[in-house]
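Q: What would this chain look like folded?
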Amino acid sequence: MITHISGKLVEKNPTHAIIDCNGVGYFLNISLNTFSKIPDKEGLLLYTHLNVREDSHTLFGFFDKLEREIFRLLVSVSGVGPSIARTMLSSMDCEQIQQAIASGDIPTIQSVKGIGAKTAQRVIIDLKDKILKTYTLTEESASSYNTIKDEALSALEVLGYTKRQVEKLIQKIVQESPDISLENLIKRALKNL
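A: My prediction, written as structure tokens:
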């Protein structure tokens, strides 16, 4: 498989880029996010994904590995093809997609042209665990999660529970409800103990 293409930028459009690599011009379908990040200099490296179908071999280009990984996760979902995944990456940036999937935000995913309610639910069901395991949403939200988890652990230890008893439970609750407040986190943990 072709992992990346490095060469001279010949043409750049909002939907595609053409890179000349040692005399061979590669046509790469790109998202608007990639388009906005491509510099107007000649030398360029784009990470790629080759989509092979019975009637075509289509090459997709991405400015960074994160965008390519999210594209691959999206096309792994039944009902989401490469064109819908590219539209999604053009409508939202990688961080917004990660947050929408991790928080189960169906309306945000459904706002992408070509994605209905059932497909949006399928995207969340199929990818939520992968997104939560693979990516931190942002540095800020990750650190606030850690602060809330630490405070909840401390509070429950003061109440007589051991760290071992509550650590996994708190982690599970935070993954299920990423925007949960400290107070609600402690209440839910106490209900489940």
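The chain has three domains: 4-62, 65-134, 139-192.
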